[in-house]
Amino acid sequence: MNFKDFKKYSDWTKVWSGKWSLHSDTGFGENWTVDSKVAAKPAYRQIIYIFKNGITDCWVRESDKDYLGKRLIKTINTVKAVKALGESLKSRAGIIFDFIKAHDPKLADKKAYLDFWKIVGDYYLPHLSVKYIVDYLSEKQLKKFLPILEDARLFSEPVFRDTENFMEKMAEGIAQKSGYTKEQIISTTKEEINKYFKTNILPAKKILSARYSKSGILFDRGKYGVFVDKEVDKIEKMLSPQGAAKMIKGNIAYGGKVFGPVRIVLDPKKDGQSFKKGEILVTGMTRPEFLPMMKKASAFITDAGGILSHAAIVARELRKPCLIGTKIATKILKDGDLVEVDADKGIVKIIK
To answer: Is there a domain that residue 336 lies in?
Structure first.
């Protein structure tokens, strides 16, 4: 994989962030650049994942995302079609929920592993369609279609939390048998675990530990490479702006103006208990397990997400100021920073 094939583009945008493993990333990237096709073309040509200590940031090219949105719009132009899409998403989510209930992940064999990725892969296309199509609807279409799509998103919201928990427990089972740690197992690729089920051979522990600490995955039309250490620094430098900033811009999920201290939360299990009422929640992207903190927070700021992201939906329900899709908030802001969130104008001003 040639880094230059990615560096020549400047329109990289963060589309999601959160607690996903490197192992899951290799499955996601394969599906998005090969299998999940809209109008006979894969969702994206190129994807970049940055994985650090259990947390992943996912970046795609803005031109790819726009092209995907335009293709999706052509498939949805009536209430009937939108309802069918919503029901498809809910049906696929139901299949995943049933699979997880019926299997003990720690006892998973090759068949269960392959079946797991098959049903997760089948879920991607309706998920992508519901998640991104709203960002490209006209105001008239949005008013008509949003309630249907939001209902489907709310029903399916636990899918990625549940599947990642399932994957981690599966990794625990493999770790117990192999003498590796769970963290090392979730830092494997899909190909490496497939090989393990055939040969009982895994990459060296040192290699997997280095990946868990800091790694990057570059996907280009289904092919990919895994990078560590200084190579990841080069990738991040290409993706994120360097130096200080006094203002951050984002998309408005719910309006309002709030002044207060910032609190960065990447893993709600680790940081959720100490979150204080009135703090401004800043994260890559929220999920259902963020809800207790969101009830305490005075406002939300996320790196990624669209109109149907979890943060946007909860902001509308709780009527709290929320900016989504800032791309850089978790990189620029620090715990304790005093900021003014002006969600009417879509900006965050750093006061101190």
So the answer is: yes
- In 3D space, the residue among 331, 343, 334, 329 whose CA is nearest the CA of residue 298 turns out to be 343
Under 8 Å CB-to-CB from 43, ≥6 apart: which residues? 32, 33, 36, 37, 64, 68, 124, 125, 128
Segment holding 46, helix H or strand E? strand 46-52
Is 257 found in the same domain as 173? Answer: no
CA pair distance 43, 31, nearest whole angstrom = 9
Asked if pLDDT for residue 49 goes beyond 90, the answer is: yes
- Contact present, 192 and 205 (Cβ < 8 Å): no
Residues 151 and 71 occupy one common structural domain: yes
Please check the confidence at residue 7 and state whether its pLDDT lies above 90: no
How many whole angstroms separate alpha carbon 196 and alpha carbon 203? Answer: 9
For residue 75, what are the contacts with CB-CB under 8 A and spacing of at least 6? 38, 39, 81, 129
* CA dist., res. 206 & res. 216, Å (int): 16
- 3-class secondary-structure state, position 200: coil
Q: Is the pLDDT of residue 243 over 60?
A: no
Q: pTM to 2 decimals?
A: 0.89
Tell me the chain's radius of gyration from C-alpha atoms. 20
Structural domain of 57: 7-237
Domain total in the chain: 2
In a domain, 1, yes or no: no
- Are residues 205 and 314 located together in one domain of the fold? no
Mean of the per-residue pLDDT values for the chain?
A: 93
State the pLDDT confidence band at 246, using cuts at 50, 70 and 90: confident
User: What is the Cα–Cα distance from 163 to 149, expressed in whole angstroms?
Assistant: 21
195 and 280 share one domain = no
* Residue 241: predicted pLDDT: 60
Helical axes 110-133 vs 190-199, angle rounded to 10° = 170
Residue type, position 52, single letter: K
